[in-house]
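U., I forgot to send this yesterday:
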Amino acid sequence: MKSSNPVFSRIERDNVYTDTAGATFGGITIKTGLMFLVAVLSGFFAFNLLLTNPEALVIILPVSVIVGFISSLIGIMSVRLSAPFALLYAACEGVLLGTLTTLLDSVYPGIGISAIGATIILFGVMLLLYATRVIQVTNRFRKVMFASLITMLLVVVFNSLLSLMGINLFTAVPDGLVIGITIFLIIYGALMLTLDFDRAEFIVSAGADKRMEWQVSLGLMITIVWIYVYMIRLFAILASRRD
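Result:
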């Protein structure tokens, strides 16, 4: 069964294994932590730049979005280049999320740290639920998740095509429905984490090349970024309704 995360789908298709140094959970943890450190440092860089030289950030931000997207693709497709491009992706996402968090936190003080804390707690809870097998990744579960992902992508593509004609499906959506959709996307991201944990466990048990730890870490990072983006969006919507 395919993972809903493109990184793990790519790893399974490559089927790269080795008889020497294989991937380990410890290695994945260290590399994921390193990516988080890079993202945090680049986030602080974006924060300081926004305060001191916002004109430069106007140029750096779109470049970070483009470079981050390209880096994720290269990291997915190349085992040999996955390490540098995974770190580059983390740096670019740090700039993007650092800017987003700073801007939203300036309007609604406190939502940045709230979103970060909520994302960390959600990650820990899902890891615990997976480790204790409270949530079990079955073939049916994978099929439902994959079908849901395809459905969401089709909706996005359809809305993009309509927007070319000046029509947007989400312009007149009530706030309550927006909150519901955002919560659904957060829950979906949380469930994607269990698929990612399952895929990581499969790769380690199969003796995959140790270099593929970077691809696993990249996959986890992509999912966590997804969760954080919708988490801070949810806090921003709730804060705006409160004000």
